[in-house]
Amino acid sequence: MAKPIGEDAISESVASRSSSCSQWSQWQLLDSILPTGGFAHSFGLEAAVQTRLVSSPTDLETHIIHVLDNTASLLLPFVYSSLKSPDIETWQRLDLLLDATLTNQVSSKASISQGSALFRIAASVFTEIPSLKTIRDASLGSSKELRFHHAPIFGLVCGLLGMDPEASQRAYLFVTLRDVVSAATRLNLVGPMGASVMQHRIAVVAETVLEKWKDRDAGEACQTSPLLDVVQGCHGYLFSRLFCS
Amino acid sequence: MATGKVVVEKIRGRSTATSCFSKYPLKFILPTKVAPVGTDVVWIYSITYGGGIVSGDSISCEFTIGDGCTAVLTTQSSTKVYKAIGSKCSEQTLEVMFLSHVCYNHLSCARIGSESLLVVVPDPVTCFSTARYYQKQNFRLLSDSNLVLVDWITSGRHANGEKWDFEFYKSINNVYLEDDKPLFLDTVLLEKRNIQSIAERMQDYHAIAMVILFGPKLRELQKQVQENVKNMMSEQLQISYSSRRHNPDSRVRNGFMKPEFIASCSTFGPEGKGVVVRIASDSTESVYNFLRQQLGDLEPLLGQSPYA
């Protein structure tokens, strides 16, 4: 006997409606207008320019690809581990673990400032997910030395929003790419049109980076471009700077 | 079973190697004449037969540093990793424990924390073409233990035109405090790939180094090193900045070279008690010079300056 067609159509419509609702949330999360302060950071680009490691459009594109690769190898595992079990114990453990891993003072501070902002905003905006607020409140009052690093919080928010794991990790690379390209325009390395063209071109490479580094446990985090770490660490010595990091 | 094991304890008030074991391909040499008489330190040289590590070698060591002891772990020359046979990887693992009660005198079990110092100052690892190398070093400290750790790699045999031409290099340095609390976790992975080769990611630099300084005995040294690096880099960057301002023409700008030596410092750990220095240099020699200069102040504690 054929299944009642009505039931299938209803469940499909419910699924599609909830997927449309969640798209609004997803797009808001990735929109640059969300006030997480990402635009204060250049991901070591400003230091790379001043140390002459980046001095041409080709250098710039190469640098951005290395940033994406290093971000993926080091931070994507934290995003993944967090979204796989978006609960307070896991998130707190990952935050402390990342704090011991991000020993570059410059990138660590950037991560903390963006993470704190994201958590505060997500808790206020996505009120349909009360655990965002409860986890945040419990952690603010905690005696543990929590730092509120960006990658685990991003994973937590994506996990609680019900985002697909692969899409969430892609999203993390997307916001990194978005912010470093934006920094490049403000450093006058490329114009807005050129930046958009470059961003689209890099997206192809970014997808292969995602394929390589996705779905790994936080314990597998590693750095693949130690030179970037050295250079970004110099940000504090820059004579004149536009960005915080 | 461990390839090598050394235990350093205080015997009659002096740091002494009470246990020293090694088997092929590893050998420990503990010369007694490195430091002037009266310096309380044990120098441990780690030697590999043949001067290098061959494909498939697996070396694991355990070091235990007791209460109030000082020990230096170094190499006789750079660790060369020869080419890989098939896909075999060469491995080195190191487990270091700082214990507060490794002593024949059981009364010391009551003591809270030790004041020991371990200085790990090897020559760099040099991976030859097609080599595969894996290294893991775990350090378990108490909050008043002291650690100086240098870990570095060079790009290969320049004379043979090898520049970051190896297959695989993974170096893990994990430092824990009491109760397995992670203090400093660092993994560097350099792997041969079709796009974004290692050489591309290293640009024109031939040596990458990391120096960790942790512990109350090293506070002055930490401050000095941070100050030195800041002055050195600020000067370089200031020159770079002014020349860019005066020569906005990119053709002229490109004539200015990248710095031959870049270093940056960060603090880490509770209350910023640790300092890590990361270095990129176009020559191994400059890194040796830098390490010699920066770690020179350790001479009174060790009897000899590292990398002298």
From TrEMBL, chain B:
InterPro entries: UreD
Presence of the UniProt keyword Signal in the record: no
Top-level taxonomic group: Eukaryota
Entry annotated with the keyword Chaperone: yes
Keyword annotations: Chaperone
Positions in coiled-coil regions: none
Family: Belongs to the UreD family.
UniProt-recorded name of the protein: Urease accessory protein D
Organism: Brassica napus
